[in-house]
Amino acid sequence: MRVHGIEPNAQRRLDRVRELLSICGLNPNFADRYPHEMSGGQRQRVGIARALAPEPRVLLLDEPVSALDVSVRAEVMNLLVHLRSELGLAYLFISHDMAMVRQISDRVGVMYLGRIVEEGPAEELLQNPRHPYTRALLSVVPEVEEMEQQILVGEAPDPTLIPPGCRFHPRCPLVASGEAARLGIEERCRGEDLGLEPVGGGAASAHRAACFAVSR
Predict the structure, then answer these.
(1) Following DSSP, what letter does each residue of 75-144 receive, concatenated?
(2) Are 134 and 118 in contact (CB under 8 A)?
(3) What is the mean pLDDT of the segment spanning 171-180?
(4) Which of 20, 54, 84, 216: CA 20 to 30 A from 148?
């Protein structure tokens, strides 16, 4: 609050701190505690309270629950969902945990090597993934029982040495299995960089993917 010049009066600033802590499910007396006197979940709630101090409209949440125990993770996720509704917030939620993504997201963008390779409404994308990388991600989520598990081979390329064409093609199951060659798209996969194209609903579709197999 001092950094952003919010509420110069010390007493009113302390009152606001206690209000923010209460909003985030903590006793206002936590204002007098040091970090080592709190659990991981409590520290995360303090971090959320700090982020809310300047009354933002959008919060960037980068792996906000990844370091927490499962039970605490659920509590913090429920808090985030409540705050979004109560305060009218929008979140940019970044996570490798697809179960968390499913719980909180309205729209999902899947990124590989610095590029969005698929994006669309959350339920549609998660129920009907079209890009091979998205399918591989979801295939290892325990809750997604109907998908055959796909284990990607090789390591992700060096971000400073982006491969030509589709940047996923060195690890793509369609290329490795020969399916891309059968479809007549392997050369394009290896040499052309495709942008996001509508899938499943014509040009007006809100679901888009960067894959030649999908855009054929």
Answers:
(1) HHHHHHHHHHHHHT-EEEEE-S-HHHHHHH-SEEEEEETTEEEEEEEHHHHHHS--SHHHHHHHHT-TT-
(2) yes
(3) 94
(4) 216
> Token digits for 84?
């979004």
Using CA atoms, how far apart are residues 189 and 77, in angstroms rounded to an integer? 38
Structure tokens at 139: 């295939």
Is 24 a domain residue?
yes
Query: What is the distance between the alpha carbons of residues 185 and 179, in angstroms, rounded to a whole number?
Result: 9
Q: Would you tell me how many other CB atoms lie within 10 Å of the CB of residue 167?
A: 21
Q: Which domain holds residue 75?
A: 10-104
Q: Is the pTM of this model over 0.90?
A: no
Q: Kindly state whether residues 154 and 181 are assigned to the same domain.
A: yes
pLDDT at 145: 58
Whole-number Å distance between alpha carbons of 82 and 75: 11
Rounded to an integer, what distance in angstroms lies between the CA atom of residue 77 and that of residue 209? 28
Question: Counting every residue, how long is the chain?
Answer: 216
Structure confidence at residue 67 (pLDDT): 82
Q: Is residue 141 part of a domain?
A: yes
What strands lie across the sheet with 197-198, from one edge to the other? 107-112, 115-121, 208-209, 197-198
Q: Count other Cβ atoms within 10 Å, centred on residue 91.
A: 17
Does residue 4 lie within any of the structural domains?
Answer: no
2 located within any domain:
no
